[in-house]
């Protein structure tokens, strides 16, 4: 089955490690056989990999972009995914993590990344919920401290 990529003007896509950039108008590119493909908008920068799920995403993305990395980090990703599976108690998130791992085993890294995107969103929600409103407020001055300053 062929994959049709509809590229926006100036959009980039990586196909088997080769960066392809579209010109100034929309274009449809057809890929007739299996290839490791990722859109530029789906690429995570290393400094964005600041949570456990994002680190796993980044390693899998690196495997997609570089076959030598894929050979080196297969067992690393398996360990990361096992830890994620046990850390998330939500059954749907566990299912997505398992599906991502199956896709990594099949060397279908893009599908693995797609499985992890909802897990990243869930993780972001958990991390944002843990921040208390107090952490974001400026500390108030107590009346006794105000008198001492005056």
Structure in a nutshell:
This protein is an alpha+beta fold and about 150 residues long. It has 6 helices and 5 strands.
Written description of the protein model:
- By secondary structure, this protein is of the alpha+beta class.
- Helices cover 55% and strands 14% of the residues.
- It has six helices and five strands; from the N terminus they run βββββαααααα.
- The chain has helices at 52-65, 67-87, 91-105, 109-130, 133-136, 143-149; strands at 3-7, 12-15, 18-21, 27-31, 37-39.
- The strands form two sheets. It has a three-stranded antiparallel sheet with strand order 3-2-5, with no helix packed on it. Strands 1-4 form a two-stranded antiparallel ribbon.
- It is globular.
- The model is unreliable at 137-150 (pLDDT under 50).
Tell me the layout of helices and strands.
Elements: E1 3-7, E2 12-15, E3 18-21, E4 27-31, E5 37-39, H1 52-65, H2 67-87, H3 91-105, H4 109-130, H5 133-136, H6 143-149
Antiparallel strand pairs: 1-4, 2-3, 2-5
Average pLDDT confidence is 86
The ordered string of helix (H) and strand (E) elements is: EEEEEHHHHHH
- The total count of strands amounts to 5
Count of alpha and pi helical runs: 6
Spatial ordering of strands, largest sheet: 3-2-5
Shape: globular
How much helicity do the residues have? 55-70%
Question: What summary fits the major beta sheet?
Answer: 3 strands, antiparallel
Percent of residues in beta strands: 5-15%
**Terminal Cα span:** 77 Å
Low-pLDDT segments, ≥5 res: 137-150
Radius of gyration, in angstroms, nearest whole number: 21 Å
Structural class call reads alpha+beta
């Amino acid at each position: 089955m062929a994959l049709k990529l509809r590229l926006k003007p100036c959009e980039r896509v990586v196909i088997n490690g080769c960066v392809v950039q579209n010109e100034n108008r929309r274009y449809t590119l057809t890929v007739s056989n299996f290839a490791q493909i990722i859109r530029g908008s789906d690429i995570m920068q290393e400094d964005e990999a600041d949570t456990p799920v994002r680190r796993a995403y980044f390693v899998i993305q690196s495997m997609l972009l570089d076959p030598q990395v894929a050979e080196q980090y297969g067992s690393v990703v398996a360990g990361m995914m096992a830890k994620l599976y046990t850390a998330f108690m939500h059954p749907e998130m566990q299912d997505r993590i398992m599906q991502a791992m199956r896709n990594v085993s099949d060397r279908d890294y893009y599908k693995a990344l797609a499985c992890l995107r909802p897990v990243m969103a869930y993780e972001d929600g958990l991390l944002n919920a843990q921040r208390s409103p107090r952490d974001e407020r400026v500390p108030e001055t107590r009346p006794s401290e105000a008198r001492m300053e005056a």
